[in-house]
C-alpha cells in the first residue's frame, strides 16, 4: 500500500499522525508541503478525494488568509486553490493519501479509516 502524508514537522497533529502511521508499520512518503507545496492539480485531486471545497481545506485563522483577501466569498474554487499553492501555510494539515482516498489527521486517528 502506498501512503503519502503532507506533513509539517512543527505541527503537533502532523507529528502525531506520522507517528501513528509508523506505529502501524507504515512508512509513508513524507512531503513537507511548506517546502514542496502541492500543485493546483494535486490539490484538486486531494479535495476530490476528501469530498470538500477548497475553503474547507484552508486554515482561515492564519493572518495570511485575511491579509490576502481570501475571506471574499466571491472568490472561485480555482482562485482559492491557487492561493494555497502560493501560500501553503494556509493548507490544513496533515493530509494522508492512501488507497485512492484522503483524510485529514485531525484527530490523527481519522486517517485510520482510509488505511
Notes on the structure:
There is one protein chain. With 115 residues, the protein is an alpha+beta fold. It has one domain (3-114): Glutaredoxin, CATH 3.40.30. It contains four helices and four strands. The chain has helices at 12-23, 40-50, 63-67, 77-86, and strands at 3-7, 29-32, 95-98, 101-104. It has a four-stranded mixed β-sheet with strand order 2-1-3-4, with helices on both faces. The chain is globular. The protein starts with a strand and ends in an 11-residue tail after the last strand. The relative contact order is 0.24. The mean pLDDT is 97.
Which helices and strands occur, and which strands form pairs?
Elements: E1 3-7, H1 12-23, E2 29-32, H2 40-50, H3 63-67, H4 77-86, E3 95-98, E4 101-104
| Overall domain count | 1
Q: Name the CATH class.
A: Alpha Beta
Order of helices and strands: EHEHHHEE
Strand content: 5-15%
Going across the major beta sheet, what is the strand order? 2-1-3-4
| Structural class determined from secondary elements | alpha+beta
The CATH homologous superfamily: Glutaredoxin
End-to-end gap: 8 Å
Poorly predicted ranges? none
Query: Nearest-angstrom radius of gyration?
Result: 14 Å
CATH fold title: Glutaredoxin
The mean pLDDT is: 97
Number of distinct helices: 4
Strand tally is 4
What's the multimeric state? single chain
Based on Cα principal axes, name the global outline.
globular
Can you tell me the CATH architecture? 3-Layer(aba) Sandwich
Largest sheet: 4 strands, mixed
The helicity comes to 25-40%
